[in-house]
Specification:
The complex is a heterodimer. Chain A is α/β, with parallel strands linked by helices. Chain A is 39% helix and 15% strand.
Chain lengths: 592, 159
């Protein structure tokens, strides 16, 4: 029997380490420490209900476990064989407890390929990875396949880059393999900077060996002997697990000289990012690896021709790599049957925002947004109305109700004015203001623009200023035209991917929520109640019982009134902080 | 900026770190990571020593320090507070939580309280989106925070 405890960042923050420790000591108290193993795994994905404890082999899925619950789990489940019902997941529709995770709505439509080992194996133990068919792909490549055959297999699989661009991975490898040089490099881009996306980190934390194995295969295929993982310094847990994994791989002869007796040498080192979104762009990333400011340069030359240290370099993202070993072991024909015509395989999304089941999901390409939001995501929080889903982060756009039945793949997302991006999926309900969301992303871009090219540096700043003006209630209809024109110029004229996509959040919200922009401009109204300058707080004289809760909590003393008599808000003094609404128990305060 | 005179021992520590990376300019970012880990921040005087050791201009080091958000030139508080401003936290009300911290501490983002106890910063996505909105104080993660809870949390550190 195995007790799997989620050790991902979310659950870790909710004391999962302590849970694991308590489980272990409770097992010891019962003399079971040799029969039952407690394993701290990678992320299960269902972060909403974390911390998660899963019991194998019967697949029992305990949610929101507290360290204090450990003894009960051991005494009831392990010793007496009775499930601890109160910790089981409750189906929100029929209110029934679901014991087996396979029957949970969250997991039913998922297909875990890149995340195949996350939540199943101990990431700190290479033997568990090997036990799950790990390093079999590497052995197959080195023993039975030529580099050309490896590249061909990846090409046939139809795998496309999961970092956002969607460039065919096999083709990328082929180009790098054809450029001859005394030294070539393989680089893994683990600089996940997109706010709201955390799949790369989950893979590195939950299954670091899959990335090491894939990079080694990549090195063999293109003729590189050095691999570098460029990882954010903000991911200490992932860094730690990678370092442990690299050491173990060395110990087992799976990294270093003469791997598996094949004569092939390959080694992997880490480079730390220091917080710059633009470093996700491959040329900028390479400059950062060289110890410089992470500014992009013009392509060509492409990294495959002249990259790190001016040598041919192949850069792939973490999730792309996580797909490689299983494509080799199961074959391209298995992989290319999954997904849509031009987008093969699965995609990992970080589902977040106003949705019931926040977490990390992996779904086949071609699934519809409706299935993701309502079946996997369990619908909108608090039964509110679905408004939009933002995909692709600061480079993407919004999908709305009219896109709910569009199959999700690279090309459909682009056609809808958004993009796949790295896989952030933020769900919004009626309480989100689309103008404010566009402004939020622009704030991010303005801060993260490296400043090298003027369309991005100056243009985005101007876009942000115009949006600021609209949310303050000073916008004109002419501003809308300016936003559109300027947005197009920035997209056309910017040097790198950051600027070429940064106006997307603005352009797509204007396209899909034009009425909302017009309301801000003409009616000076924000229907979501987000843009403070456009709001006024009013106390309903009928509803107010004069409990004085609002007046006592108003930070600027803008509310006055006698006890047990209706109160009033002085709108001149009111700073629109919303404290009064939160305190009012009688729903007497409204925004208009 | 006020000049800080570096103690001899500190200068030697910086030199030691630079040497451990072979004094190579290409290792500048790794050196800065290590030095910031040692001192908590990277004031101009520290950058001068690094530039000298790696044989590059101070401007180049300064350029790197100011480019990356991870590097800071101001000392952080004893309890650094980071409010996550990732999209998931934003749509679940992180801005209101941030406003409450500003009001309680009477400082802005990027500032430190006069007693050196707290500093306030924003960061992008800790990846605990299931707990949104999230605030980090030091290494400790506080999830599902509301503006109401801010005062109580600060009081844990104030006593």
């Amino acid at each position: 029997m195995h007790l799997l405890v989620c050790g991902g960042t979310g659950c870790n923050a909710s004391r999962s380490q302590e849970i694991a420790a308590n489980l272990k000591s409770s097992l010891k108290d019962n003399g079971l420490e040799n029969e039952v193993q407690v394993i701290l795994t990678g992320c299960f994905g269902f972060c909403e209900k974390g911390p998660i404890v899963k019991i194998m082999p019967d697949n029992t899925f305990y949610t929101e476990v507290k360290p204090e619950d450990a003894t009960e789990i051991i005494m009831e489940h392990v010793v007496k064989g009775r499930k601890v019902t109160r910790l089981l997941y409750t189906d929100p529709e029929n209110k029934q407890h679901v014991a087996d995770s396979k029957h949970m709505g969250f997991y039913k439509k998922q297909m875990r390929i890149a995340l195949r080992n996350c939540g199943y194996i101990d990431p700190q133990n290479i033997e568990e990875y090997i036990g799950a068919d790990g390093y079999a792909a590497l052995a197959k490549c080195l023993g039975e396949m030529t580099p050309e055959q490896v590249i061909n297999e990846i090409k046939l699989s139809g795998l496309r880059g999961r970092g956002g661009g969607g460039f065919p991975t096999g083709l990328k490898w082929e180009i790098a393999s054809k450029n001859h040089a005394d030294q070539k490099y393989v680089v893994c881009n683990a600089d996940e900077g997109d706010p709201g996306a955390f799949m790369d980190r989950s893979i590195l934390e939950g299954d670091p060996h899959s990335v090491l194995e894939a990079m080694t295969i990549n090195g063999y295929a293109i003729g590189a002997t050095i691999g570098v993982i460029y990882i954010r310094a903000e991911y200490p847990l992932a860094i730690n697990r990678l370092l442990v994994a690299i050491d173990q791989a060395h110990e087992y002869g799976l990294l270093g000289k003469d791997i598996l007796g094949s004569g092939f040498n390959f080694d992997i080192e880490l480079r730390y990012g220091a917080g710059a979104f633009v470093c996700g762009e491959e040329t900028a990333l390479i400059h950062s690896m060289e110890g410089l400011r992470g500014e992009p340069t013009f392509k060509p030359p492409f990294p495959a021709q002249s990259g790190y240290n001016k040598k041919p370099t192949n850069v792939n993202n973490v999730e792309t790599y996580a797909n490689i070993p299983i494509i080799i072991t199961k074959g391209a024909d298995w992989f290319n049957k999954i997904g849509t015509e031009k987008s093969k395989g699965t995609k990992v999304f970080a589902l977040a925002g106003q949705i019931n089941n926040v977490g990390l999901i992996e779904v086949p390409m071609g699934i519809t947004l409706r299935e993701v939001v309502y079946e996997i995501g369990g619908g909108i929080k608090g039964g509110k109305e679905f408004k939009a889903v933002q995909t692709g982060g600061p480079s993407g756009g919004c999908l709305t109700t009219k896109h709910l039945d569009t199959p999700i793949d690279y090309d459909n997302l682009l056609a809808s004015g958004s993009m796949m991006g790295s896989g952030g999926m933020v769900v919004m309900d009626e309480t989100s203001c689309m103008v404010a969301i566009a402004k939020f992303y622009l704030e991010f871009t303005v801060e993260e623009s490296c400043g090298k090219c003027s369309p991005c540096r100056i243009g985005n700043k101007r876009l942000h200023e115009i949006l600021e003006k609209i949310t303050k209630g000073n916008g004109t209809m002419e501003d809308l035209d300016n936003l559109r024109n300027l947005g197009r110029v920035i997209k056309d004229a910017s040097l790198c991917g950051l600027g070429q996509t940064s106006p997307n959040p603005v352009l797509s919200t204007i396209e899909n929520f034009y009425d909302e922009y017009v309301e801000h401009i003409k009616d000076k109204k924000c229907r979501a109640g987000v843009c403070k300058s456009l709001m006024q707080y009013v106390i309903d004289q009928e509803q107010c019982v004069g409990c004085t809760a609002c007046a006592r909590n108003c930070p600027v003393n803008a509310i006055s009134g006698e006890k047990k008599m209706p109160h009033f808000i002085n709108t001149e003094l009111c700073i629109k902080c919303g404290a009064c609404i939160e305190k009012c128990k009688f729903n007497a305060i409204s925004i208009c | 900026m006020a000049k800080v005179k570096l103690a001899e021992s500190k200068i030697n520590k910086i030199k030691e770190i630079c040497t451990s990376f072979g004094n190579k300019p290409g290792e500048a970012i790794n050196v800065l990571h290590k030095v910031q880990g040692e001192f908590g921040y990277l004031p101009a005087e520290v950058q001068e020593v690094i530039a000298q050791e790696l044989n590059v201009s101070v401007a180049q080091i300064y350029g790197i320090v100011t480019f990356y958000s991870f590097f800071t030139m101001t000392p952080k508080g004893e309890f650094p507070i980071s409010v996550c401003m990732g999209t998931a936290c934003y749509v679940r009300g992180a801005e209101k939580v941030l406003d409450e911290f500003k009001r309680e501490l009477k400082i802005g983002v990027g500032e430190t309280t006069p007693d050196g106890k707290f500093s306030l910063n924003c960061l992008r996505c800790v990846g605990a989106c299931g707990l949104a909105p999230v605030v980090l104080i030091g290494e400790k993660v506080y999830g599902r925070l509301t503006p109401d809870g801010v005062k109580d949390i600060l009081n844990e550190y104030r006593s």
